[in-house]
Amino acid sequence: MCLPLKEKSQNTTSKIWTVSALAALLVLCLLYTSDAALLVLWQAVSMAGLIPNFMLPSPVDVGKAFVGDFGLLMENAKVTLLEAALGLACGIAVGFLMAVIMERFEKLYKAFYPLIVLTQTIPTVAIAPLLVLWFGYEMLPKVILIVVVTFFPITVGLLDGFGSADKDMLNLMRSMGAGEFQIFRYIKLPGAMSHFFASLRISVSYSVVGAVISEWLGGFSGLGVYMTRVKKAFAYDKMFAVIFLISIISLLLMKLVEILQKKAMPWENVK
């Protein structure tokens, strides 16, 4: 009776060490090799059967799932992108307004800054169910959640940018009789643009992730709803396909922000 249990324990230990070694190898490849080499290694691991296919589908299976469900993925992606766009636009507006007010009035800065930081300590997954309970399963709770996760980087980035304005330039403007609005328009705001776009790159990725998380917990369509359905169906090849799609969308949006920065700040391109 003891021998089968001992052999089973040894087999389990062997599998654990094999999976751990493969995971370490994948991490090393990710750090020191190209993406193509990582995909080749991933495919080789799947073909060798070292990891069960239901746990780690091969890149070929993921590609087939992506192509097979392409129409459905695009249909759900439209909903997620619309939610992300609306939430991000509102988040930028709220973040910009709060940064301007807090920069102008020091007492408001001291009063609101701790509250803003406090909002970011609450897990997003904890907020989303409450928003669904209060506002239903439509788009409104998703947009609110995205605003909550995107306004913070914008506010903090702009405040840092406003605070980094050249003191000599500020004194020069004041000595020439410039008012606070003129100083803000010609010195502080242009000087904060690099901080704004750096924060915007973060907020763009947060908006997509926030939309997906809100769809997980309540919704009728979107990539988060799609992920929930394929997970319940144990279709992990489709799960990996939608994960890669979300990553691609986030990277493309961050690249778009980079292009907008170059257009809005041409002086930064001059070397």
Can you characterise this structure?
The termini are far apart. The chain has helices at about 1-30, 35-50, 60-70, 70-105, 105-120, 125-135, 140-165, 165-175, 180-190, 195-215, 225-230, 235-265. With about 270 residues, it is mostly helical. It has two domains: about 1-55; about 70-270, Orthogonal Bundle (MetI-like fold). α7 packs antiparallel against α10 (about 195-215). The chain contains twelve helices and no strands. The model has no long low-confidence stretch (mean pLDDT about 80). About 85% of the residues lie in helices and about 0% in strands. The relative contact order is 0.11.
- Mean pLDDT rating: 80
Supply the CATH class of the largest domain. Mainly Alpha
Major beta sheet summary: none
Structural class: mainly alpha
CATH topology of the largest domain: MetI-like fold
Distance between the termini: 76 Å
* CATH-level-4 superfamily name of the largest domain: MetI-like
Could you estimate the helical fraction of the residues in percent? over 70%
Low-confidence stretches: none
Radius of gyration: 24 Å
Query: Strand tally, please?
Result: 0
Order of helices and strands: HHHHHHHHHHHH
CATH architecture of the largest domain: Orthogonal Bundle
Silhouette: elongated
Q: Helical segment tally?
A: 12
Write the layout of secondary structure elements.
Elements lengths: L1 H31 L2 H14 L10 H10 L1 H35 L1 H14 L4 H12 L3 H25 L3 H9 L4 H12 L1 H25 L5 H10 L3 H29 L7
Helix pairs in contact: 1-2, 3-12, 4-5, 4-7, 4-10, 4-11, 6-7, 6-10, 7-9, 7-10, 10-11, 10-12, 11-12
